[in-house]
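User: Hey, my collaborator sent me this sequence without any context and asked if I could get a structure. I don't really work with proteins. Can you help?
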Amino acid sequence: MWDSHQFTLTATGHEQESIQMNIEYSDQLGSRDRKPFLLFVKGDEIIPFAGKGIEGVVVVRSTKYKQDGRWSYTTYSLELASGIRHIAGRSGWETNRFNEGLASAVGCKSPETWAEMAQALGVSVPSAMEFLRGFRPKTAKRLDEVERELAALEEASEKETDTVIVSVSFGNPTNRQMRDGFWENPKSIPGYAAEIRLKEPARGWIDGNITVVGIVGTVLSIKYASGHHGGYYAVSVGLVPGTETEIPPFEVARNKAAEEERGPEVRVPQPVSPLASLGDLFPKVNL
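Assistant: No problem. I've predicted the 3D structure and written it out in C-alpha cell form, which is a compact way to encode the shape of the chain:
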C-alpha cells in the first residue's frame, strides 16, 4: 500500500494565524497501520478533528468517501477560522508512536518529556497534559514515567553531580552473533561499567522492556532503523555518575529454558552385587 500525504493547503504556514484558511485532509490509514491525526490549536487549547465541524474553529465544506476495504477513507475540505493553527500527520514510521509522528509534522526531534511535547505542540505544559491524556493515554503515561524516572535520578544522587545522557547503539549482527544470542544479550553502556538488559527477551528492545544495570539510570528513548539481520537500535539512557554497583551475572534465556526443560538431575541407584550381599552375611574370618 503506497503512503500518500493528503494534507493540501491554500495558505502558507506564516499566514495561518492571521487569515482564514482552506485545507484538505484525509483520514486514510498510512502504511504500517499508521493512524492519521489533525489537530487544531486555538490559543493555548488543542482540539482534535473528529470528522465534524467545530464551532469557532473549523467548518466542513464538503466530504468525499472512497470505499477500499480496510483502506477506505474520507477526504475533507475544511475552512479554518482566523487565528486557528493546525497540525496534520500520522503516527511515526519507525515506532508507530504519536511522538515520532508529531516530530515529523512540525519538524523537531521526537518529544520525550512533557516540556518537549508542549514545545512541539506550541502550547503550555498543562494544556499539553490535558490534551494528551484524552487523545493518546499511552503516550501520556509514558511521559509521566519519564518525568518520575528523571526525578528519581536526581534524588538518587547523593553528590552534586549532573545527570549525563549516553546513547547505546547496536545492530547488524553476523549470523554467528545471532546464533550466540545477540538480540537477547545485554549491551554495554559506553564509558561506564554498566549495561542495558531486556526484562523479557521475547518482547525485544521496546519501550518498557529495557532496564539499566550496574548504575543508577533510566531509559529515555529508543530509536530503531530497519536493516540487515534485524536492523539498528539507539537506546538513550540517563545516568548518575558515581552510583555504579556490581553487575549481576547474566544467564542467556535459551540456556535457562533448556535447564528448566531438563528439570533437576535424578540420580539412579546402582544395583547391588549378589556377592557383596553374601559378603555382608558371612564376614571374612582370618584363620
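In plain terms: The chain has seven helices and 13 strands. You can pass these C-alpha cells on to your collaborator as they are.
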